[in-house]
Amino acid sequence: MKNRLIIVTILTASLAACAAINSKDKPLRYEETVSGGHTALAYCVADKLNADVRWLMQLYHYIFRIYPDIETSQIYAYDTRFLPYIYSSNSPQNPDAIREYVNKSPEILLDVKNMIPAEYVYGFVLTIKNTSSTMSVASMKGDKYVSRIAWDYLQKCASTEN
After folding, report:
1. Is 20 part of any domain?
2. pLDDT tens across 51-65, in order?
């Protein structure tokens, strides 16, 4: 009886560990009040992310959403290795690929009162919410390294807004 209990405990712990490997929920890395409107800051960060030529940053597909009704912008960095519409002909891991899924235009979601949660595995999500006409609160959830890069871009954009 003891052996069965030990085996069940080990299997349960293993299953719980495996379930969290590619979890969509990521830890909060940064949160800060920054100067600038949510839309201008998000456009600036999205431009810098799309222009980044580092191999690791090229692995991400950036989704930029604006929620005018709740004065919020979000940028998701979805990992292309886990997206269903990435093939060898357009994969960033293929040096000859054509990245046809890069879209610099934001999705503007009217009449939406709640932000859309992550649809796939992501590297980070940057959320910028207006607190006044000149200030916003920015929060970053995600993986440590890529979150730091995007957060540095946000800091640069906020400093140029002044």
Report:
1. no
2. 888 888 888 888 899
**Distance (Å, rounded) from C-alpha 139 to C-alpha 32?**
7
Q: Provide the domain limits for residue 84.
A: 27-161
d(CA 62, CA 139): 16
Q: In sequence order, what E strands does 17-99 have?
A: 28-35, 60-67, 72-79
Q: How many domains does the chain have?
A: 1
Cα 124 to Cα 59: distance, rounded to the nearest angstrom: 12
Judge whether 10 lies within some domain: no
DSSP-derived pairing of the beta strands 122-130 and 107-108: unpaired
Region 109-120: what's the mean pLDDT?
81
Backbone angles phi, psi at 140, to 5 degrees: -130, 125
Strand intervals (E) in 11-87 = 28-35, 60-67, 72-79
11 falls within a domain: no
